[in-house]
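Assemble and predict.
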Amino acid sequence: MGQGISQIVVYTVVLLALSYPLGTYMAWVYSDRFRAPSWVAAPERGFLRLVGAGTSEQDWKSYAKTALGFMAVFALLLYLLLRLQGHLPLNPDGMKGVLPDISMNTTASFITNTNWQYYGGEFTMSYLSQMAGLAVQNFVSAALGMAVLAAVIRGFARRSRRELGNFWVDLYRSLVYILLPLSLIVGAILISQGVVQTLSGHATAHTLEGATQTIARGPAASQIAIKQLGTNGGGFFNSNSAVPFENPTGFTNFLEAICILLIPAAQVFMFGRMIALRRQALPLLGAMLAMFLIGVAILLPAEQHGSQVLRASGVNITQGDGQSGGNMSDKEVRFGIANTALWATATTNASNGSVNGGHDALTATGGAVPIVNMFTGEVIFGGVGSGLYGMFFYVIIAVFVAGLMVGRTPEYLGKKIEAREIKLAAVGALFVPTMVLVLTAVSVVTGHGLQSIFNPGAHGFSEALYAYDSQSNNNGSAFAGYGATDFSALVGTVALWLGRFVPLIAALAIGGSLAQKRVSPPSAGTFRTDGVTFGVLIVGVIILTAGLMIFPALSLGPIVEALS
Amino acid sequence: MTRVLRGSVIAVALCTIVFGLAYPLLMTGFAQAFFSGKADGSLIRLNGQIVGSRLVAQGFTSAKYFHPRPSATSPAYNAGATTFANLGPTNPDLAKAVRQRVRAILSLERPYNPGLTIGQIPVDAVTTSGSGIDPEISAANAQLQAARVASVRGVPKQQVLKLIGKYTDARSLGFLGEPGVNVLELNLALDREAPS
């Protein structure tokens, strides 16, 4: 396991080394100090004029309305595009229009930055749908989350003001100054390593044994770059990042895995810069890093130990002597155990959801890690934007708990945290986990819901739990045996929309509320929020809220299975 | 609100043009200009005909070839519809499938590896890959099959082992990922250097 652990250590170090400068850059991009050269600034001014935005700033309600209106228009367009793709160009393999319930679920899935897939890319989507429909949303849904985060952070930074920023400015800057350049770089590297990028239809091969093999391909690299960077995760191909055309080598796997957590990690550093109190970001970073490493530390040995079936079968699952061993079910040789375990942790820490191996085939203990990661509300680094604004809910609850313990009015960054913020944070932190449990319960007690389950016994329950955990938290990975029915597509759609809107609006409302407050200077009695103690407290709060809520469900699924 | 909607429609149109068309087309242009072989799917041609891709497993059942890992796609090694098997860690169907694969391997390889036991079969030989088209097998899996291939082709096992070494993709940069043997490239090399 030593080789695997060293790869994970290198991963962590490289991630931090890259996200720090990126965070500094992003803080600058969103600030008033940002000055672009004129050839860069001109298109931005043109864009703002065209959308009729001006540059005047908006209060939180106006900001939220603009964001939601923009999402609604895009949702309508994407739905129509999917339904009508059979009549539209760039369809060399002759795909038919996508079915209504799948279109509805897929639309919600991509607008909300989830990329849950009730379809298989290479046999459902035309190239136009992949490019103009899904890949666009990979950019836009990510940028929307990033814009909202920038606005919320301004709420922490500002004093006695109502405005949080201009949605269109933040959206444009997220898209054009952050996501686009990174995607171009990553996409070009992926292409050089063997990821496909072509407009030709499938290739037909005549195999050495005389069979005919149809090889699906397409403009994949451009989409994969942004799907990883924007915590989207929707595969160009059905088996997602396990498919060699998406992820051909150990190096592409490393790069893509870095991209999964890059922007979310950079946003923590960005937060420190934007509030001009860099030390305040450290407890958040520490809490995230600790929970990430705990996840890997559970998942990796569980997979290396192997599943019950494989251990009982008597085949050689020992690592070494020319194999990585362990639970190789639904895993690729070039990634082995360590890199699949690392990916499974990272992709469910972030709300990415791309997979480089099948999660349904993970061991019971290993499979519990993604379920818990997602259930925290995707705050362990989390989705671009949504991860950190989700973390703020826990931060506020932690500050409140600390305030109760020392008997003072809770404060964060010099601002008094009052009933309104606590209520909003409670809604933000508790609404989605509650929804997960309710929808899972509905899906396992109704006949319609049970039809989606593929595996027997406790694992079947885990499939349903994973499905609503993933969709509600806008992750998008799956215990992929869980199947699409009209019922599951509809319930999933509800989970997707509410899982995006409720925390997003709650976070903006908190930002709006904090922006209006004055800042009081720290005194001897102020609870310090820039040290190790606060980091530990955040982890404790997450375990107490999300951990205790998920535990009964875990004991019905993964825990029963692990013991069987 | 109408102002928001009007702005949204324009923004949607602009985003679709820039990120949905210009960006992927630019990347496609770059790919086709500089890396067209890779961007088109790393296809392998033999006598002018496409025989496969170095990144896509294809079915091999003949004893003279190395065999890829099991595949859950329908039919197996369907590179037009990749999929996981999605069988959970305690699923009886998984146990059954593994047992069948073990039996098949024992009956295929034992004549060439006397005394072969279940405990010597590497796990990747009896488990489906993630993509269903994993182009590689572990070195242990290749070594298990080497005796059979050498014997059927009537060449020394040493020569086959050397070819295995040659078509083993090492870890990227020496430490990223896991090594694996590319089955299609290895079989093509065997047909070239040790035709049967």
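The first strand of chain B starts at residue 43 and ends at 46.
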